[in-house]
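Hey L., structure's done. Input below.
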Amino acid sequence: MKFFQFRSYAITILSIACAMSQAAPSLYEEIGAKPAFLDNIVMKYWGNYAGPPITNPTATTTTNVKGQPLTTKQNADDLLTLGYQIAPGIRPGIGMPFNFVPFQHAVFQIKPIYFGLIDLKLFDTGGLSMHTDVRFYTPIGDVASSQDVQTGFRASQITLYEVPGSKWTVGSYSYFRYWKYGSNGKGFRNDYEVYFSLLAWYPLSKEFDVTIWSDILQLGHQFGASGGLKNLPIDFQPGIRWNIAKSITVNPYVNLIPGNLRWETFNMGVVVNARFL
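Output:
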């Protein structure tokens, strides 16, 4: 019954993304034309599924963020965004992050919904580019209600550089986030977070890329706790990205924790990106 549950779930997510990405073009064909204002509407999905260890693919648990194996239920960290392109490189909108735990009493939770800049291009010149997004969180959602999250703020940046004379693209991703809890706040998240990651990819063909991702800094201060920011173990995620279509990519990977290299901590995962509009 449990055999390859991870694979089944990943296939399900991919099937839904493919169906949704094809729905809009089919509708436009039916009505004969795409309304002009829809040209600027952008709807995207991003999902990261934390799967089982490679030594136990039938498990329903995964390694937690501290590097302890088989201690956390497998889960999908998802984000659905809807934005409107008001000018080249400027797209305000709303975002609905959510979490899905498929096994051991399935749970679906909407995280605090936010509004802000879904994408803002700061610059793009000479193979070097930087984009940012800015989020203002609302108290709307299952998690906000249960954990008494009143509001929050996050600013993130992604910087990419196309290495001259090679096919490599290298870069970094970072964000700062602040959460404000009410009097009944339980510290579902840290109240302060600072994150920094390095990334790179190399195209093998038009359809496939080798990808590398490493979380270098995952600093956080837990709500209500004394002391300063604490870091989580560095992880390293080599993978293969499959560019299925212009609007869909699937990136299976293996998550490794250099400070705790044991077979049971080598976990499978998959990242799905899809654009519906």
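The CA atoms of residues 250 and 272 lie 5 Å apart. The first helix runs from residue 5 to 31.

-- N.
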